[in-house]
Amino acid sequence: MADPRSGRGRSLPRASLAETMGVLSSVVLPVLGKGVLLRRPPVVAMAQRMELDRRAVETVRALRDRHGDGPLVLPVPFHPYALILSPAHVSRVLELSPEPYAAASDEKRSALSHFEPHAVLISDNAARQARRPYNEAVLDTPCPMHRLAARFRAVVEDEAQEMTEAADHFGELDWPGFARAWWRMARRVVLGEGARDDDRVTDLIAKLRADANWAFLMPRRRRLQARFFERLDEHLQRAEPGSLAAIIRATPAAPGTDALGQVPQWLFALDALARATFRTLALLGTHPALRSRAEAEIQAREPQDLPFLRACVLDTLRLWPTTPVILRQATRDVEWEHGLLRRGTGIIIFAPFFHRDETRLPQAHRYAPETWLEGRPEDQGLVPFSDGPARCPGRNISLMLSSMMLAALLRRRPFSPVDADGIQPEDRLPATLSAFELRFRPGPG
Predict the structure, then answer these.
(1) Rounded mean pLDDT of 205-224?
(2) What Pfam family is a match for this entry (predicted)?
(3) Which of 71, 122, 355, 411 could covalently link to 82 via disulfide, CB atoms 3.0 to 4.6 Å apart?
């Protein structure tokens, strides 16, 4: 599709070699170092100490100031990339996915094939036509509350109670304690009660995700992948009532869907959501006015939808996106107002740049859940779940589970961060906040 303001016959602006190296060193390498598919806690802690994410945002801002709204071509040998620099262009690229901007980029296929080779994210258009509707049907994509919301809430309450009792016993809630309870909840929701204590199935996907961090540099461990899918399938075959596994059994699948092959992405996404939920608990612990509003909503609305708590999670994801780089790839030549985007060019949307752009957003470095309660923040380039036809189909179920867990914990104890330096209402919030380092004291119930 040619843009009506086409720059036909011209090439898009190009970064210099020095500028390209600057993007690779200050933006791409820190993202890869922290672990794209499985976070490396020591590297995340180092990135926080060295403020690497702040420097990355400043690098992209300097390019925007120097070159305008772009897109800006980074002349990487054998595989050029176009760096998106305008919120309007973010919307354009995401709205025109998967054609002519494919979500199944070369990089994604190389990495995700380690643990989800048939996932909708890396499917070609033919397979996507079967797999995307299937994901939406099982996950109730359009609905704020999943059809099994009442059952899932009971699961969340069980695990929150056990988590709180453990925190009371040990005197604090840390990341390992939270993660254990979160994964028990996640396995029950996705795979059923019989998977609650099956750490092995999530350990296997973690090993495969660790390989995926290296993408094409790491050969696929097909035997390990086969063991993971065999164990996953054992749980899905039970199709326990009250789980996504039961819905999988009951949902017709078109040829080529590979229902089993869609599940690893859901488990992967719930891992990222765990970190966002833990960070949100920390921010509510340091922002008393927002915490009071959340507590009032919990009393007034549960077990219904919790829009303010969802907004709290969304703004945590704005501040610290779990997918900092959104990738697309041009499937054909496309005319833009400033020139031609060549077929095969990779497209980089560096979400932290748009989420923390202080030239446009007065709330760039503060906690502002109200951002998500009116209008369409996506039009400002705020895309924690991507946007357009390839927007994450699990957005609503993710926000539902996260807000349910926060509500369950806040109702039981006023959890306060042990070290709250830098995340107070008056602070300029850091560009990196490691969930792995957070600890909480459980107050009186």
Answers:
(1) 95
(2) p450
(3) 71
